Design the sequence.
């Protein structure tokens, strides 16, 4: 098993390509997180292994993208209580590498930020306390996917991956220890369809479901604890513009 | 006299117009004149007699000299402590009033049925009283009102019947001493005030107590003779005395007070003749950050003075009421009906249950008012159940408050029991001496409790001289909670039940882990409660 950073594709061209792909994924697995579930590796493997032979003749595609979307949070009651809504706009962007085998690897960062107010919850009553609280969530996600590219203009795709979600919560009158800045790990799966607008640009519509378990509801002063909600993830719909070829 | 002076003008003018005899030769006319003169004299004499007997106060002037600030009393010899029911004057009394009962009939009870029921206790009937769903019915003064109440209470058409038990202030005055207020740092109030600076005048806290030093006045009372103890020396009747009142400088101006009401004298002028209510009001809303004196919890709220208990001078002056369950219950309803958001009851009594007060407090909460009530100071003298506080756990929005000292331990006097819900600083002179009590502004007791000097030096009191006094008791703990409730309402927690829940949730657990009978849910934590909940912290 390799432990270095070098790509086996670049430095060991004599290996069988399928084996190399496995090694690439394994490298990433070890570099980023020793505990990436095997199913994620398996998804990549199956995607690559299932690639039809003719697809392997396609070229690499490297492009950047930007997206805008709306996330509906799993901890909907908690977000709604503090921020006034269980959903919010998310802006993001990243880089994507599409391999000739229709496999894509994308690194994406996004940001959600909203200001609400602290609350007190009693039964089914909620009392807003007028103390501003700002929540920002910045996920950095690594996603592997497969593109059902059969030469048509519309290209469906699906994928899954791992994400690191930096959660920051600050409020007025808080001591330093009463604010939060922590990173939680989660996973996501997504699917969408991309349409090529011009040879060097495409637009996509995408749905993503992310889970970030055990991130909320730990602290006694958490409204999430009141509602017994602990997941920072959610479902996001977004439109994406990708540029590059 | 200046403007606004009322000097029993009707009597003076009648006397001035009394017809003199003349030389009218018509005998019948002379007889008419003589008869008229005699009639006028009789009316005058009777009125004057009634004036003395009932000792109704006469407002002489609405203005008075400025209040006298006598500073912090730190050199006085210790005064004999007063506890509820232990006042020399009160020892002469029974715990209830004779000659009447509180009765609430079930809705729909016919008049004939009522008469028949009342006839069982030889009652001649009663009349509805204001701010009350019950009646105060007359019975034979020689009859035992407790026994009569028991007989009525078991009747199916009677919701409750009880004697008119007297209610007392809940404090244990301390040796007069000095220094500073430890109670607010103990509650982390500096940080709490960062979040909420003393609420606003939109919040009204009713102080149901001995009255409040809230205005200036000269009032003429008639001081009757009395004994301090059975068989003790008689304090001579002072007769008519003109008593000066001034507003406590550290409670603010007239705009600070709303809807004053006196249920002891049945007037709209609840002057404090004791000092207890003024001290309690100070903890709730003493002017703060003005470079003078001491601080209060919710220093911007309005205060509604509602006088429902009598001080010693009220008794000496012969007040028509002395502070019984019915009076307090009416005061509660009055306060709520006149817009109070928070009610402070630093009062209480022992003895049998108080259904009339339970009824009134339930009404208060149903109308959106939060009630803070003292848990009682009887821990070392039997720890008997404090009747005003005992039903607090059953009513969401009514909180029974125990007291702690500056060591955060239960104060020696603070009652324990299942009804204690939270604790707050009430002071404990056994920990830190006098400075271990609660410091607020009130009357200079040397000029109030003149009867403690003995008959020779006994003289009329004055209520226009103020000092900063250390007092202790659950009476002093309760206004911390009332002020705290005002802050919470201003912050947005407006429902009484939610206020109680918030107080309990954030209370700092003391004593045994979890709720216990000494500290309830623990020491109130205003700062954490005001901050409430974030999304994740």
Sequence:
């Amino acid at each position: 098993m390799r432990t270095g950073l070098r790509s086996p594709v670049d430095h060991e061209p004599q290996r069988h390509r399928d084996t190399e792909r496995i090694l690439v994924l394994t490298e990433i697995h070890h570099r980023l997180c020793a505990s990436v579930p095997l199913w994620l590796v398996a998804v990549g493997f199956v995607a690559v292994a299932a690639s039809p032979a003719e697809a392997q003749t396609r070229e690499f595609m490297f492009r950047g993208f930007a997206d805008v979307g709306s996330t509906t949070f799993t901890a909907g009651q908690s977000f709604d209580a503090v921020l006034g809504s269980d959903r919010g706009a998310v802006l993001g962007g990243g880089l994507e590498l599409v391999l000739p085998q229709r496999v894509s690897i994308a690194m994406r960062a996004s940001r959600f930020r909203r200001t609400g107010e602290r609350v007190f919850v009693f039964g089914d009553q909620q009392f807003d306390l007028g103390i501003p609280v700002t929540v920002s969530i910045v996920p950095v996600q690594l996603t592997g996917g497969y593109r059902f590219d059969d030469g048509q203009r519309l290209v469906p795709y699906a994928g899954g991956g791992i994400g690191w979600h930096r959660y920051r919560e600050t409020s007025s009158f808080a001591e330093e220890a009463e604010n939060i800045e922590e990173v939680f790990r989660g996973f996501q799966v997504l699917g969408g369809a991309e349409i090529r607008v011009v040879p060097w640009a495409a637009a996509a519509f995408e749905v993503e479901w992310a889970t970030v378990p055990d991130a909320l509801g730990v602290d006694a002063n958490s409204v999430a604890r009141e509602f017994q909600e602990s997941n920072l993830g959610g479902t996001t719909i977004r439109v994406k513009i990708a540029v590059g070829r | 006299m200046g403007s606004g002076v009322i000097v029993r003008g009707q009597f003076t003018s009648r006397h001035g117009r009394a017809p003199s005899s003349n030389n009218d030769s018509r005998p019948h006319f002379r007889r008419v004149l003589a008869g008229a003169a005699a009639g006028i004299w009789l009316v005058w004499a009777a009125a004057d007699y009634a004036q003395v007997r009932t000792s109704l106060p006469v407002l002489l002037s609405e203005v008075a000299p400025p209040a006298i600030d006598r500073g912090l009393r730190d050199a006085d010899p210790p005064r004999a402590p007063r506890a509820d029911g232990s006042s020399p004057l009160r020892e002469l009394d029974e715990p209830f009033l004779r000659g009447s009962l509180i009765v609430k009939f079930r809705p729909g009870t016919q008049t004939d049925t009522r008469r028949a029921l009342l006839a069982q206790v030889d009652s001649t009937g009663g009349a509805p009283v204001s701010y009350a769903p019950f009646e105060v019915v007359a019975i034979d003064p020689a009859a035992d009102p407790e026994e009569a109440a028991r007989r009525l209470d078991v009747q199916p058409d009677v919701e409750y019947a009880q004697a008119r038990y007297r209610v007392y202030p809940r404090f244990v005055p301390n040796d007069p001493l000095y220094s500073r207020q430890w109670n607010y740092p103990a509650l982390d109030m500096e940080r709490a005030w960062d979040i909420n600076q003393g609420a606003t005048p939109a919040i009204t806290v009713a102080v149901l107590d001995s009255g409040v030093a809230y205005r200036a006045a000269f009032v003429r009372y008639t001081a009757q003779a009395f004994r301090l103890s059975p068989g003790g020396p008689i304090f001579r009747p002072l007769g008519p005395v003109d008593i000066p009142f001034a507003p406590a400088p550290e409670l603010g101006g007239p705009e600070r007070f709303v809807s004053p009401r006196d249920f002891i004298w049945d007037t709209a002028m609840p002057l404090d003749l004791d000092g207890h209510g003024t001290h309690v009001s100070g903890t709730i809303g003493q002017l703060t950050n003005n470079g003078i004196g001491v601080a209060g919890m919710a220093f911007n709220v309005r205060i509604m003075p509602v006088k429902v208990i009598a001080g010693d001078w009220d008794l000496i002056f012969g007040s028509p009421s002395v502070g019984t369950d019915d009076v307090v219950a009416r005061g509660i309803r009055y306060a709520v009906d006149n817009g109070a958001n928070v009610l402070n009851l630093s009062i209480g009594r022992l003895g049998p249950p108080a259904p009339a007060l339970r009824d009134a407090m339930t009404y208060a909460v149903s109308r959106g008012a939060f009630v803070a009530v003292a848990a009682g100071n009887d821990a070392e003298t039997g720890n008997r159940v404090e009747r005003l506080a005992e039903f607090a756990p059953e009513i969401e929005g009514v909180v029974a408050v125990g007291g702690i000292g500056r060591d955060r331990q239960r104060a020696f006097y603070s009652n324990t029991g299942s009804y204690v819900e939270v604790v707050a600083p009430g002071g404990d002179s056994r920990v830190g001496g006098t400075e271990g009590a609660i410091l607020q502004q009130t009357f200079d007791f040397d000029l109030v409790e003149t009867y403690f000097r003995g008959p020779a030096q006994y003289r009329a009191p004055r209520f226009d001289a103020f000092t900063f006094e250390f007092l202790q008791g659950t009476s002093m703990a309760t206004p911390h909670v009332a002020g705290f409730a005002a802050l919470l309402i201003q912050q947005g927690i407006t429902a009484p039940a939610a206020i109680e829940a918030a107080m309990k949730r954030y209370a700092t657990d003391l004593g045994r882990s979890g709720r216990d009978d000494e500290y309830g849910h623990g020491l109130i934590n205003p700062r954490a409660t005001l901050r409430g909940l974030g999304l994740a912290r």
